[in-house]
Structure formats: structure tokens, C-alpha cells
Amino acid sequence: MTKKIPTRLYLSEDEIPRFWYNLRADMKEKPDPILHPGTLQPASAEDLEAVFCKEPVKQELNDTERLIPIPEGIREFYTAYRPAPLIRAYFLEKALGTPAEIYYKHEGTNTSGSHKLNSAAAQAFYAKEEGLASLTTETGAGQWGTAMSMAAGFYGLDLTVYMVKVSSEQKPYRKALMETYGARLIPSPSDTTEAGRKILEKDPNTGGSLGCAISEAVETAVKTAKCRYVLGSVLNHVLLHQSIIGQETKAALDRFDIKPDIIIGCAGGGSNLGGLIAPFMGEKLAGKSDIRFIAVEPASCPSFTRGRYAYDFGDTAKTTPLIRMYTLGSGFIPSANHAGGLRYHGMNSVLSKLYRGGFLEARAEVQTDVFDAAVKFAKIEGILPAPESSHAIKVAIDEALECKRTGEKKVILFGLTGTGYFDLSAYISYNAKTMGDHIPTDEELERGFATIPDIPQNK
Amino acid sequence: MTKKIPTRLYLSEDEIPRFWYNLRADMKEKPDPILHPGTLQPASAEDLEAVFCKEPVKQELNDTERLIPIPEGIREFYTAYRPAPLIRAYFLEKALGTPAEIYYKHEGTNTSGSHKLNSAAAQAFYAKEEGLASLTTETGAGQWGTAMSMAAGFYGLDLTVYMVKVSSEQKPYRKALMETYGARLIPSPSDTTEAGRKILEKDPNTGGSLGCAISEAVETAVKTAKCRYVLGSVLNHVLLHQSIIGQETKAALDRFDIKPDIIIGCAGGGSNLGGLIAPFMGEKLAGKSDIRFIAVEPASCPSFTRGRYAYDFGDTAKTTPLIRMYTLGSGFIPSANHAGGLRYHGMNSVLSKLYRGGFLEARAEVQTDVFDAAVKFAKIEGILPAPESSHAIKVAIDEALECKRTGEKKVILFGLTGTGYFDLSAYISYNAKTMGDHIPTDEELERGFATIPDIPQNK
Lengths: 459, 459
Hints:
The structure is a homodimer. The first copy, chain A, is an alpha/beta fold. In chain A, 41% of the residues lie in helices and 15% in strands.
């Protein structure tokens, strides 16, 4: 049973990366600057610091330094669950009968169940260093809220989580998990904010949305002393923190001299995909490799494949700074879908720029196909994947089967962002064959696009 | 951050143990033989093979060979989730301010969420080798049923799981998980068996019990062609398979020359505890070490601390072979308790003999104290533990605090049998402060003892 490459390619604790990889430093064409929503001028650090913690704001605006040191206080937290295993999918390769080698980086081995903890740890650490007392955030599916609850608890910060009301009702266990770690949960929309009250007035029975929960969390952060807002995806500093995924993966692959041909990640706001590909894309931008990168999004929320490249708001109430990105419009309402983490109208600006530049491909997948792949993977590899991660699994299997057809021995790497242990209602619906997926009509997309701000930069 | 001992003491895949450790070979006084319930004579392999698979029966009766080879077909399955990490609890040590070193073996990193998969893999493998088509089993809390679903799915066997009715209603997600892996779930008692029908006749609204689910699973196995019954605890071959836990733990500790002073495990039927301590207890029995071993059981189901040492049945319908063990009587009904995996009336015969011989200590802990420890552990170490495992955590913390008082630098090792991801209703009840625990009165115990068979061997 001695294999040249083991099933798990572990790094030692000493090899937890000392630097995050800031991909923007490698880009000749940088992402466009974030705009202040009032002045429509590039937002300054000062503008952003009204909402976000100071160090993350610096990181948000830093597009020149490639390697940014990870503070020891964050690396210490990382030892609680990192390095994360990189797994050779021997069982899956055999079951598919493919000549391809398949690897996946498993980010679901921590209690929050996903990669979100990587940035939660960093943001909580910086908040504590800055002398803050509390943080606010929002959560939809619950991964980010759980991760923030764990991190805030660890560093001794109060945390208020606005949880999309329908999620909070459907996922009492997620709620319990966050509360066990000491967070205060508020179903959104709520009467604790103006943004919430305004929406409740219009529609008292609304189930809420991520965009609305963001508005409430931002409003509370701005109005509370020694409090800031933290976000789990979309922003550049979040992708920076998530580059620990790519840094570890690259170190483990390099040790065995393995060069991936294709790297695949699911994409909602882009944090996992951006983190996983960072150092590899750096090589590609430098002309040193020819890797294909594939972003996989749900067909119900197709920001890349059917969205527009434009400046847009991050929230429904249109209070956040403007980011130039692929977007469906902040007013776009994706159909119910079990991959809650991927139901966001916009996409990180770095990934958007790379997609626009042809460095990154994108595919949209239908929910039932994604769950076919998820259940296959669960049975063969023994790990029940998160619905989000299963988008990447679907495309990894497709690419491996394509290798079987052509006889090519490609090396396929994908990000397993998390486990599906808190998403079993999705599997119940799949097992009962009641799962569907609504692909938005052109008209529905147009209604979303109509909410993109009509500003000179979007002409 | 370079530590002498890393947070995670990993073995490499090549170091997955090649042998199980059969502790009975080291015992001068062997456990008493299993009796045929009809003849009251020692059960032969043939007797047992009517119910169980052949190779496990051989293992059940083998009390002379110390090292039993693990077939390659099982070791291959083990690579899907093993070696399991042994973790140095640096965060917990610091939080407690104890001079003790604390280690825990984390068996919850697989999708079934517990150590149960170790024996499920072995039993499914042997069933397939023997040419069987299907297996039956029962599950209470759901860990064993999930583990068997994964293993049966992997080796291509049909599996019917009788799930205690009240659990099946309270844990729809556990049920979904098992069904995703291809198992057929039947709430017990059911009308598919005589045992079930008899109980339903008496009490149509019963929520069922583990003892009754066992009766149904055994009956179905015996009446079905090419079908056998598998059990997840109590029996010696199950403890044998679980000795992989102890074998891996000892190999990892030996590498760093660490000698445990105290080893702690929760005990329901005894599979995790027996597996964890096997090679260490072997050394103690040989006079080569002076380790203290502590079994922790729930105060609501105190087989060791308040039970009787007697021959007893494994099931309510009194159909199984008789085992000499610490028991509360097969008719004992433990109060509702969230550590479903520990609510069993009897205890494995090897552990019972060792306890009787003074080689093993036992403690009973109250549920709320156990959850205090669980939540503390979750916040400090970042892993949400299973209610069962939290019994061991409680005592490990107590021992570490005792070291703080005395200034002793003891090495404490405990088994983290699994995660609490599917037990969040327990945490909800704890967070809401509605959790209680009923300690059985002497009268209630007497009612249980009255169901212990009145046979000559019990005089």
C-alpha cells in the first residue's frame, strides 16, 4: 500500500504559510478602484475605515505587495485546524476509470465546516488589535456566521450576526452552533435598524435576503461605538486571507513535483476560488504556466456567465461602496437554491478582471446535476460535500471523464470548500427527487440589471 | 511557533497499523465465555455464525492471539479517513492553567462523525468476503447506522437499519445521511418482525429502544438468506477492530517518547474505550506501566458504577447469547439523555473483567456537567464534541485541574470519539438551560436488575 503519492498530502504545522499571496501585485491591469457611493470618486482608506477594520482596509487597497506577512496571532489560531489536507482522489479516479489525477483541498475539517474560518480568524484578530469591542456581520447559509462566531469567541469580541430570516428558520442547528460560540443572532430584516424597518414596512412577511442583512449589519456597525463590520467574501482582503488555501496547496504539490493542468473552484462572491488560485494564477500571469482556471457558479445565479461588468453596490439598500465587477444587479433575486453560499449577485473585482481578461473560464451548473455529483462523491470518497463545493466536484468529474475520452493524463485540482453536514435538508430534497432549479429568464435578469446604478462609469 | 511537539501528531498513511491488538491475549483471567441462551453452555462458533459473519465470530472467540492482521481490503478503506489525528490540547492546557499535558485522539474527522466507522469497515469487508448480499443492524443515536451505511455502500452490500423510532423522528438529518449512502431505514419497533409486532401490540405508541431494535435486526438477519447481523459495540470483535485507535495513538506517542499517566474514555458498550486502551492496558497487565485508566459513563445509565456483574442478554426480547458483564438488566430503561450512544444497559465483557480486577476505574457524570465541559472545549479547542465524547472531556478537565492543584505535570490522554454536528438539539437544550438529567433511584435500578436472567451461573 506504499504509494508514490499518499492519499493525504499533509504539510507540517511549521509549514503553515507565513505569507498571504496578494494576486493583484501580479496583475498588469489592476481591478478598477472602489468608489465612494456619494462622490463616485475612488474610496480612501478613511472612507472605508468608517465601516471596516483598519488593517483589512489597508489590505483592500494594497495592489502592489505580492507577499503580505500573516501575523503570529493569526497563525496560532490556524494551528487549531490547519494545515488543511490536500487529498488525492484515488477512489474517485478508480470509480471514473479516468487516466487523470484528481486532487482536492479539503477546507471542511473545522467545526464551522468551511474555508470561511480563514478570513474570520484574520478579521477578528485585527479587530482585537485595533481595540474594538464588537463586530457585526450577516450570514445566509450560515458558514460565514459560524466561522465569525468561532473567531470572535476565540479573540474575545462580541459579535452580532444578522441571519437571513428564512435561513434562520430553516437552519435552527446553524443558529444553535453560532450561539454556542457566543454570538448574538438577529433574524433579518429586523426592527433593530432603519434598513430593516423600511423593508419590513413594505413587506412584513419577507424572508429576507443577503443584501438586506448586509445593510443591517453595516448600519449597526456604523452606529455603534468601537464596532466595525466584517464581510466573508467579495472583497479583496477576504480573498487575500483565503490565499492561505492556495499557498498550502502549492507547497504540498511542489513537494511531490505535481503541476496542475486545471484548477476548479465554486464561485459565489469568489473568496474560495480567489484564495485557491492565487499563487497559481500568479505563475500564469508571469507566463510561467499554462494552467486552466474554471469558476463554477449555479445556473440560478450566473454572475459570470450571464452578468454584466459594471460598478455596483454590495447590498440591497445601496449603501456600500461601489465595486466594478460581474453583477446581476443588487436587486436580482436568485431562485431558492440549496447552495446558499453562492446566491450573491456580484463577484469579486479581481476575479472579474481576470475573467474579463480571459485568464479565467466560468461555467454555470444546474442544481440537480450538482447533487448527482455530490452524492457520487460522498459514496466514493466518503466525504459528504457542501452544496457549494459540489459545483466544483461536478466540473472536476466532467473534466476527468473528458480525459477518459481523450486518454489524456491531466492533473485536476479542485477546492472542496466544506462539508454538507448542516445542509442535509438539501440532500433530503435530492433523495426525495423534489429538487428543482430555476434558471432565470432573460426578463428576470433584465429586472436585476435595472438595479445597477446609472452612473457615468457604467456608460 | 516551532514546538517540540506539534499540535497534531500525524502518522503517515504507510503507518496505518497492520495489526489489531487483541487485549484478551494479555489477560491472565480471561473474560467468561459467551453462553448459548437455550443450553446455557459456552456458545460455539457455529451457534454464533447463525447471526454474525464468520471471521468476526472467529475473532469473538479468539482470546490467545495478541496481534491479528488487518486485511489489505480494510486498510484500503481506512486510507479514506485515517490515520486519525492525535491532538495536543495546547489551547485547553493554557486556558486551564494546568501543568498537565493533554492529548486527545480525534476520531470524528470522517463523515459518519465518530469512531464507529473503524468496525463498520471491517464487518462490511468480511461480509462481502463471505459472499453475503445484505446486512442488518440497529442504531440509536445514529453514529453506528451512519458508519455502517458508508461501509456497506463502499463494499456493495444492502443494509437495513432499524432505527429507534424516537431517534428517527428527532433526527431526520441522520436518517437522510444514511439514506444518501444507500441504506434502508426502518423505525423500530416495526411490523416487519415478530419482536416488533409483539412490542407494538403491548404499546402501540412506544418510542422504541435500542434493545428492541437489536431484536428486530437479529430476527431479520436470521430469517433472510445470505444476510447477517452486525453490531457496533459491546462485542469483543468490535473492540478488536477499534484497537486501531489505540495502535495509532501509541505509535504517535512513541515517536515523541510521550508516556501517558492517565487514559480516559467514555463508555457505553465499551468499543471506543476498549479500542483506545488496548495496547496500553497490555503493557499494564505485563507490569510494564502504571497508567490509570478511567471509564466515564452517564449518571443516567451507570452500568459500571451501579450495575451488577452477571450473565445477561444484549436485547430486550432476550434472544441474544448471554454475556457476563456489568449490567443494569436488559429491561432497564435509562432516562432521556442526549448521549444516545451511552444509553446501553450492559458493558463489554473484557472491560467488565478488567474493572472487576481493579485495572480500570469508572466514573459516572451528570449531563449538565458534561455539557459545561463540552461547550468549554468547543470554544477553546475549536471542535464541537459529541455528547458521548464530552464525558471523557469532563473527566480530562477535572484531572488537569487536579494537576494544577497539586502541581503535577501528568500526561493525560482522552478519546474524542466524535463530533456533535448531528447533536445540535442537545446544545440547543443546553443553551436554553432546559437540560436536566435523571439519576436512577435505587428502586428503578432494582426493576432493571429483576430482568437479569435467573440462571445457575448468576447465583
